[in-house]
Write a structure and sequence with these properties.
seven-stranded mixed sheet, alpha/beta, 5 helices, globular, 9 strands, single chain, Rossmann fold
Length: 198
């Protein structure tokens, strides 16, 4: 099992605790250093690998399951290249499952407030969101893709799309997290889950 864009690897540690044998991959040495600290703190020994998901250092057809939980996909300019690498390393019949922020959040303010439940930019504006530090150095880049863009990227990479899941807000849930609140969650999904097979 391969997790792509693992960050500090909470998903891989959860999977390890459930009996799986994940390999946690991220391009960021800093995130993997934090993952190693958390491995030691939790006693869950998840193997960590620093690599570019667009050039996976794994053999063809060597992975049964690949996943990405809000990981690398939104942060790479060429998602299709990453998905093609996933297709390459998956065994025939292997599965890929990824969760990303739902594309519907892109045209709205990044706020949980009910008065911000409004469209302020085009859903079709694919310019990346970029943050810079005080010196002008880029510190964060996220790429927007429409639902159709995701479908075409998956299929274009040679995978077979088997499901798109848009989880509904849990009734009675009252917490606000980031831009997500009951007011927003009751109107639209916060997550898009992509399920595909090789």
């Amino acid at each position: 099992m391969l997790e792509i864009g693992c960050g500090s690897a909470p998903c891989s540690r959860w999977l390890r605790g459930a009996g799986a044998e994940p390999l946690a991959l991220d391009v960021s040495g800093g995130m993997l250093a934090r993952a190693a600290e958390l491995n030691r703190a939790t006693g869950l020994a998840v193997p960590l690998l620093q690599a570019d998901a667009g050039a996976l250092p794994l053999a063809d057809a060597s992975v049964d399951l690949a996943c990405s939980a809000f990981g690398g996909l939104p942060f790479v300019a060429d998602a299709r290249a990453v998905l093609a690498e996933v297709a390459r390393v998956l065994r025939p019949g292997g599965r890929f499952v990824a969760s990303v922020n739902h594309p519907m959040r892109w045209p709205m303010p990044d706020s949980p407030d009910p008065e911000d439940l409004r469209v302020v930019s085009s859903y079709f504006d694919r310019r990346p969101y970029v943050e810079t530090d005080d010196s002008g150095r880029t510190v964060y880049v996220e790429h927007h893709r429409t639902v159709g863009d995701w479908v075409r990227a998956v299929v274009g990479a040679g995978l077979v799309l088997t499901d798109l899941v848009e989880p509904e807000w849990t009734p009675g849930r009252t917490e606000t997290w980031g831009q997500w609140s009951p007011a927003r969650g009751e109107l639209m999904p916060g997550t898009l889950i992509i399920v595909a097979e090789r």
